[in-house]
Amino acid sequence: LLLLFLRYCSPEYTFPSQQEVIQFAVNTAFEQVTLNPRTLVVCGTYSVGKEKVFLAIAEVLGSKVSMSQEKYKILQCLESATINSLITLNWTNTFLHLLPMMQINFKVRFKSESQSKKSHNLLP
């Protein structure tokens, strides 16, 4: 089954390229963490997708990405040494957290933040 949603294929809609969006996310995270090193960066993701975004942020920040065991196992299936070197199950040693899109809200972000021994400012 292939379902195509063509609404946004109309020429009246213009979107930045994938690389521009990734660069914007990287620049925003870098700027905020530089201004306040206690900033917690939270990326939302589905089961597969958004890897380019959070991995680019991790590389620029020199940080690993913490995530659930389920997401960790999914990413391990990609058998990528680069990805494996940037992901962790340890929530306390990183300020870059990956959460399911359906869990992204202030209550969950606060819970995620409070799991860390460090105090963070939140960057959604």
Automatic annotation (TrEMBL):
<comment type="similarity">
    <text>Belongs to the DNA repair metallo-beta-lactamase (DRMBL) family.</text>
</comment>
<dbReference type="GO" id="GO:0003684">
    <property type="term" value="F:damaged DNA binding"/>
</dbReference>
<dbReference type="GO" id="GO:0006303">
    <property type="term" value="P:double-strand break repair via nonhomologous end joining"/>
</dbReference>
<keyword id="KW-0227">DNA damage</keyword>
<keyword id="KW-0234">DNA repair</keyword>
<dbReference type="GO" id="GO:0036297">
    <property type="term" value="P:interstrand cross-link repair"/>
</dbReference>
<protein>
    <submittedName>
        <fullName>Uncharacterized protein</fullName>
    </submittedName>
</protein>
<keyword id="KW-0539">Nucleus</keyword>
<dbReference type="GO" id="GO:0005634">
    <property type="term" value="C:nucleus"/>
</dbReference>
<dbReference type="GO" id="GO:0035312">
    <property type="term" value="F:5'-3' DNA exonuclease activity"/>
</dbReference>
